[in-house]
């Protein structure tokens, strides 16, 4: 096999989600075979992303601008916030085009066993947004897992004093990072079928 540069490339690629050592070798080979067309553009895109992408202080989304593109869009319903577990869920809902309001990325779910408590979640910016007023509904789109349900329950009690309507998406939807695998129709149905929490 090749020199240390190639080994290093394969090693780093192998750390990407979804890529094992074998697919990392295949990816490296594909990139190295076309350095000008593939390897350099990818390296440049990565460098640019590393330099510009940051976490939106308002909602927790990843974007090269802060507030992010979603938060800065005046055409979105400012009174409607959809709370999701991760940025992947936000992107899935955006791709499906089923939510016309704003988002809030919680950054995880409560897990007493995993040692994740309320202080580990991105909560205070959400409370600040509710305190600032103008939010009439918060949709909780968290996982159908035990942790998701626990977080949902805890969050609806925590947010109740704000006066906003707290609703949750239709049950049986495997969210919490798994929104990605749902087709757009299912996502839309889940969001439409929300009910008071
Ligand atoms: Zn944002």
Protein model, in words:
- The chain has 197 residues and is an alpha/beta fold.
- The protein folds into two domains: 4-52, Helicase, Ruva Protein, domain 3 (Orthogonal Bundle), CATH 1.10.8; 62-196, Dna Topoisomerase Vi A Subunit, Chain: A, domain 2.
- 42% of the residues lie in helices and 14% in strands.
- The protein has seven helices and seven strands; from the N terminus they run αααβββαβαβαβαβ.
- The strands form two sheets. The chain has a five-stranded mixed sheet.
- The chain starts with a helix and ends with a strand.
- Bound molecules: zinc ion.
- Zinc ion binds at residues 56, 58-59, 61, 67-68, 70-71.
- Keywords: DNA damage, DNA recombination, DNA repair, Metal-binding, Zinc, Zinc-finger.
Topology diagram in text:
Layout: H1 4-13, H2 21-33, H3 35-52, E1 54-55, E2 62-63, E3 77-84, H4 87-96, E4 101-105, H5 124-131, E5 137-141, H6 146-159, E6 165-168, H7 184-192, E7 195-196
Task: Jot down its keywords.
binds zinc ion, 197 residues, alpha/beta, 7 helices, 7 strands, 2 domains, Helicase, Ruva Protein, domain 3, elongated, Dna Topoisomerase Vi A Subunit, Chain: A, domain 2, single chain, five-stranded mixed beta sheet
């Amino acid at each position: 096999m090749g020199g240390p540069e190639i080994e290093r490339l394969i090693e780093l690629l192998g750390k990407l989600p979804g890529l094992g050592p074998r697919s990392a070798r295949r990816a490296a080979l594909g990139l190295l075979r076309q350095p000008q067309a593939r390897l350099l553009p990818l390296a440049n895109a990565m460098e640019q992303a590393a330099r510009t992408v940051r976490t939106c202080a308002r909602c927790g989304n990843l974007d090269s601008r802060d507030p992010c593109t979603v938060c800065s869009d005046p055409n979105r319903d400012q009174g409607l916030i959809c709370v999701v577990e991760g940025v992947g869920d936000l992107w899935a809902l955006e791709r499906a085009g089923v939510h016309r309001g704003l988002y809030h990325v919680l950054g995880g779910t409560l897990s007493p066993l995993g040692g994740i408590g309320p202080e580990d979640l991105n909560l205070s910016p959400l409370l600040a947004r509710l305190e600032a007023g103008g939010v009439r509904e918060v949709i909780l789109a968290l996982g159908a897992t035990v942790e998701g349900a626990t977080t949902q329950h805890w969050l609806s009690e925590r947010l109740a004093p704000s006066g906003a309507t707290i609703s949750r998406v239709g049950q049986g939807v495997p969210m919490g990072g798994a929104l990605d695998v749902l087709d757009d129709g299912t996502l839309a149905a889940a969001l439409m079928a929300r009910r008071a929490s």
